[in-house]
Amino acid sequence: MATQRIRDFLATRRPEGPCMILDLDVVRENYEGFVKALPQSRIFYAVKANPAPEILRLLVSLGSSFDTATVAEIEMVLDAGATPDRISFGNTIKKERDIARAYELGVSLYAVDCVEEVEKVARAAPGARVFCRVLTDGEGAEWPLSRKFGCVPEMAVTVLRRAHELGLHAYGVSFHVGSQQTNLKAWDRALSDASKVFRTLAKEGIILKLVNMGGGFPTRYLKDVPSAQAYGMAIFDSLSKHFGNRIPETIIEPGRGMVGNAGVIRSEVVLVSKKSENDKLRWVYLDVGKFNGLAETMDEAIRYPIETAKDSDEKVPCVLAGPTCDSADVMYEKTPYPLPISLTVGDEILIEGTGAYTTTYASVAFNGFEPIRSYVI
């Protein structure tokens, strides 16, 4: 729900065109919630969720570390005041020259998921720490991750063994249970796999130290989600079950859970129409769509809460679409969205829970529409 600070901003500034407004007070509350829920885990904010400088500077001041995917993100975090020891190069697909640049900047922690990537890190960042990403099934996630990243646990043993042979520090195992993960048990299955990798390598004298438990912590959209405290309890129970008294160093990488509920997109109705006289569905076209902020409506995976000034009026099912001349620019059609029958051209709507993966997913200028503007307050 839009905070009073966001509502005051919209009432006084009246920004032109679609925009995303993010309240830093909510980010602070979310960070403090993660610290309380998982006090033994270091927090590495997933910069890709929203790299706004104001967010990065706030999180630096709060003591956060950062999960980065590119040299550009590493430089953003350093510019915000973080030191290199608070940065992980978490992308498993890196150019060798980018590894070398990150190493030059002082970054010493790298994700890998195959022997070939290990060999690149060994050449470009000698002596660095590496952790191997293990595949998970993503069951229970609203935005499951593909098999693009990670390897099976048996291969993770081979990958980390090779890292050790090449003089790297075989440091640990990582996984990601899928974005917007609502199943509290998802981490249990992944931690079971991680513990097997630990035990297998320990028999060879290779002692791993880290479990990177990734992101997946959800933000509330239309459905209630478990609290950070509930995730923390479930994860700690699983760590104790699989690692006993030798619980390793752990880190988490919240992105959506850190900033998702802090942002609201202000949009405008451009057109309301029907496809025939007998059509029961109204088509509502907005000035934002899949190409300028709402990419995560792909396959209707993420259903954002929508607020209008006419929500007390009767609601009817509507197809919600964006403004571009691309037929893929339709957000909700399989499951139409109930919107006020009185909604008309020029009406303002607020799309809530849009602080994560909106401004960064926007195209540069498809059809000449500029990227969605961002205001951080």
UniProtKB/TrEMBL annotation:
GO molecular function: ornithine decarboxylase activity
E.C. code: 4.1.1.17
Catalytic residues in the record: C325 (proton donor)
Names of the cofactor(s): pyridoxal 5'-phosphate
Keyword list, A-Z: Lyase, Pyridoxal phosphate
Catalytic activity line of the entry: L-ornithine + H(+) = putrescine + CO2
Claim: ATP-binding is one of the keywords in the record: no
GO CC, one annotated term: cytoplasm
Xref: InterPro entries: Ala_racemase/Decarboxylase_C (IPR009006), De-COase2_CS (IPR022657), De-COase2_N (IPR022644), De-COase2_pyr-phos_BS (IPR022653), Orn/DAP/Arg_de-COase (IPR000183), Orn_de-COase (IPR002433), PLP-binding_barrel (IPR029066)
Sites bearing N6-(pyridoxal phosphate)lysine, chain numbering: K48
Domain Orn/DAP/Arg decarboxylase 2 N-terminal: 26-259
Family, as annotated: Belongs to the Orn/Lys/Arg decarboxylase class-II family.
Pathway listed: Amine and polyamine biosynthesis; putrescine biosynthesis via L-ornithine pathway; putrescine from L-ornithine: step 1/1
Protein name: ornithine decarboxylase
Pfam families referenced in this protein's UniProt entry, alphabetically: Orn_Arg_deC_N (PF02784)
GO terms, biological process: putrescine biosynthetic process from arginine, via ornithine
